[in-house]
Design goal:
The protein is an all-alpha fold. 58% of the residues lie in helices and 1% in strands. It has 27 helices and four strands. The protein has helices at 10-31, 41-57, 61-71, 84-89, 99-107, 114-127, 134-138, 141-146, 154-164, 172-185, 189-201, 210-214, 224-237, 267-272, 297-302, 320-329, 332-351, 360-380, 385-396, 404-411, 419-436, 439-458, 461-464, 488-509, 514-527, 530-534, 544-552, and strands spanning 37-38, 79-80, 289-290, 307-308. The strands form two sheets. The protein has a two-stranded parallel ribbon with strand order 1-2. A two-stranded parallel sheet has the order 3-4. Strand 3 (289-290), helix 15 (297-302) and strand 4 (307-308) form a beta-alpha-beta unit. Helix 2 packs across helix 13 (224-237), helix 17 (332-351) runs parallel beside helix 19 and helix 21 runs parallel beside helix 24. The longest helix is centred in the first third of the chain and has 22 residues, at 10-31. It is elongated and about 95 Å long.
Amino acid sequence: MAMEGIPSDLDVKIGGILKQLEKYADELSADEKRKKVKLSEGAEADISSLEEMTDKYGLSSEQITRAVDVALHCSMDLIRPAVRPRLIKCLIPRRSISDHAVVTLLGRWHTMPLPSRLTWLKWLLCVYDYVEHKAQLHKLYSVFFHMLEYETLRPLVCQMLYRLTRRQDVKPFRIRKLYELRGRFGDELALAGLMDLYKMYHGEMQLVSSKANKSAHFFKPPDRKLSSKIVAVQNRWSSGARSVTDAPLSLQLQRPSVSSGAQNRSSKEKRQIANLIPAVSVSSKLKQVSVEEIGSLEELVTFAAAMELPSNLGSVLTNATLQHFISLSRNPVALNRIRYWIAHLLEDELIFRKTNVVSTRNEYRLQYLFRSLLNFCCFIQEVIPEVESFLIQYIRTWDGVEEFGSVLELVSRMRPRPYEQLYESILKPIHRLYIVSPAWVKAQIIISHTYLLRRWCRLDWQTYFSSDLEKSKWAHFIFGQIPDEVDHLRTIFELIQYLDQLCVLGLAAESDHVLIQDAALSLFELVSTLGPVYSVPFVIAPSAALVYRMLLS
């Protein structure tokens, strides 16, 4: 039965086109075996029709396997211009792809010209999350590693290896090979990213790469146009009833309550954000317990040592079981994988697509991304360093309207830092919005900064500054520790002084508005308890200007 908006005879048409292309390839192989020929008008029309239909409706797993056989037919090398890259781009999955199709394509790697190899690698990176059984793909790790010798393909190969690499793949001979490649070809960004991943599994590796130290964004999206087509096809086919295992990116997860109006959205709008954050999918079934098999917190504690993490840890943003496990285990490799995935997600969604035309679909994706990040940060009670870096960049051009509540909530959960850095990167940009905003926005900003102050004061600073304590053992943060060569108490002192001035400015600008008065009282209610409640070794009284305005208003 056809789904809504999808032609009932779609599969019949696609099957007919594939049959015609198979027949054309067989005839060409028999008649023009040693000659270069131009694509016939009939075959050109068939390929164009196939491109048009697959761009909109995609192919089933069986059709992809059949189309792969057509694309790899030996006669395709006799056609000019080459049509194999066009056929590979038609392999857009409706739900999932069998590992057999991927392995078959790789098996003919040596017969492909360079354009086809580039297209195949980009396609594989785009559909990686839709491959059914990645265990078969992982068995070809050595084949991909050998491709690092190809300079043109190296950025894509490094990205593929980055996704495939597990602890057992990090061998001494491969480490030596990476060092050799860096010595021969210089400080390439993609190679630095792969070496940085190897260092996570093999801590003895020495990285002197300046790019590895300064940038977490090692890889660019392989083919944004193809990725957009895949997402559109997945959204279209997700409207029908299907099994949970039909696709790795689905709405099977229980999403967080991100907004009061989320339940009122149409099914189309929900599908538009379905593929933003991956669902839990485990690449192999060893003698371990998968995330999907954990049903309660007691089971999580019992089987924590035998837990098998999913192949894409990005699902930690919405999966409560993974969030509890990450907080419990604090596995450094898993934490780094999460950090890099979030960094790439933010860069791809909000930096690379910044120039795109604003649409309702992009607004919902942005909202869902912010709320998912906020949901995760609220659970772990801290903001990941990569999210902090993004916030610092985002706030510079923030209009004060887009995701107002989420931005202020994330700011209120940032980690301690030097006051000068806090002022230049966070307080100053928000202050510019504060001046031109109405009274209720001013009150919200003061309250947000007060929450930030409270969270910093709650930290055990007496233990932190104890002389017999190693700062690395001060386990208040999951994703790395705060810098230890900073006078954090001075930062708290300066922040209180700044908030005092901010309250005075707001009261003067808004004629002593009651909302700002309430925010100011909440601030100094907190400040008055710094010593007895939070053991902060100083007392700060409100300024005379603030006291007079509050008394005489």
